[in-house]
Specification:
By secondary structure, the chain is mostly beta strands. It has one domain: Pectate Lyase C-like, CATH 2.160.20. It contains four helices and 29 strands. The chain has a ten-stranded parallel β-sheet. The longest helix has 7 residues, at about 70-75. The radius of gyration is 20 Å and the shape is globular. It starts with 16 loop residues before the first strand and ends in a 10-residue tail after the last helix. The relative contact order is 0.09.
């Protein structure tokens, strides 16, 4: 939950007193249209206007500084800027290059469902200029390469659907690809199907620490993947049903591709995994060893997390390639609960010892960066 001490910066033009717009319907939830009339733009606005030269206001209806998120990003001229984004649906692709560091995006609604950034490219979608297809990285609705990025109360979505494009085989469709170090997401939502959240780095030799707190992430195939050092704390992962498949497995929640030299991959702590699909139709994870890094040793630790019946408790892990069996990677659990966490075959579920668990913490993964101490 956002802290009562956190306040949105205010616009000198009454930006925070805007009429509510039409509802948004994406993923599992919808936002109903509001009744007419003005309402405060966010719960935590101060009654006094605050003039801030490093704050930009985004509103699709023209009541701010820019009508698109990308235009506001392009207007950022130095480190440490803030974008306050009005409730609404922003159908666009957005890219934050490496020069725009320490950028903060604040959703000005009461809930992350109020501010939605969405597009519908897939890996196999042809580019308009005829130069080929987008590929997985190019499919991303939002791409963040800069260090020090923070987002609060925003939905990142890719609403491309297999059923609408039966001729496309490249079905990866990324909602967010984030590659910067010290990237934090508080109370955000990530909606998609295959490859929803790409938590990655800019290159094999670069460390990227990322923190996701109180977030919601949904998808079906490898919908949290990449080689970042990422901590997911108090997050809800939801596996979707599929109409194009009749039998298990429907897909996989995690597909880390951690570099072998990196001692920390993905850490999931105090979370939950629920499902729309039939029981045991999903695997918890499979290792991704990409052709660009055949020495990768994917790492995933899931601890003190509730795993629902959608996860196959007997065999929760699978191989992406027979050449890189999951047993040779760095997969482990600790004190998980729920029907998807039952240990029926011990060798199928590696467990941390108490001593090992003492080192599998957010502080160990993120080092001298402490994003959870910030007011959010």
């Amino acid at each position: 939950m956002p802290s009562p001490h956190f306040q949105l910066p205010l616009s000198r033009r009454g930006f925070l007193m805007a009429s509510a717009g039409a509802g948004v319907a994406l993923g599992l939830s919808s936002v109903p249209a509001q009744a007419g009339g003005a309402r405060p733009f966010g719960r935590y606005g101060s009654p006094a206007a605050r003039l801030d030269a490093t704050t930009l206001y985004v509103d699709a209806r023209g009541r701010g500084d820019h009508t698109t998120v990308q235009a506001a990003v392009n207007a950022v001229t130095a480190a440490g800027w803030t974008l306050v984004i009005a409730p609404g649906t922003y159908r666009e692709t957005v890219s934050v290059d490496a020069t725009r560091t320490d950028l903060t995006w604040l959703g000005a609604g009461d809930d992350p469902r109020d501010v939605v950034i969405v597009f519908d490219n897939a890996a196999g979608t042809p580019k308009p200029d005829g130069s080929g297809t987008y590929g997985t990285t190019g499919s991303a609705t939002t791409t963040v390469r800069a260090d020090g990025f923070t987002a609060r109360r925003i939905t990142f979505a890719n609403d491309w659907l297999r059923a609408d494009h039966p001729g496309i085989t490249g079905t990866q469709a990324v909602a967010l690809k984030v590659m910067g170090d010290r990237s934090a997401f508080h109370d955000c939502r990530f909606l998609g199907h295959q490859d929803t959240l790409y938590a990655d780095t800019t290159s094999l030799t670069v460390l990227a620490r990322q923190y996701f707190a109180d977030c919601y992430i949904e998808g079906d195939v490898d919908f949290v993947f990449g080689r970042a050092t990422a901590v997911f704390e108090h997050c809800h992962f939801r596996t979707l049903t599929r109409t194009d498949l009749a039998a298990a497995p429907y897909g996989f929640v995690f597909a880390p591709s951690t570099a072998a030299a990196n001692p920390y991959g993905y850490l999931v702590t105090d979370g939950r995994v629920t499902s729309q699909a039939p029981d045991a139709y999903y695997k918890l994870a499979r290792p991704w060893v990409p052709s660009s890094d055949t020495t990768a040793r994917p790492m995933l630790t899931v601890r003190e997390t509730w795993l629902g019946p959608g996860i196959d408790a007997v065999s929760p892990y699978a191989n992406m390639s027979a050449s890189y069996p999951w047993q040779n990677q760095r997969f482990a659990e600790y004190r998980n609960s729920g029907p998807g966490a039952e240990i029926t075959v011990a060798e199928n579920r590696p467990q941390l010892t108490r001593a090992q668990a003492a080192s599998a913490t957010r502080a160990a993964y993120l080092g001298d960066w402490r994003p959870w101490r910030e007011e959010c």
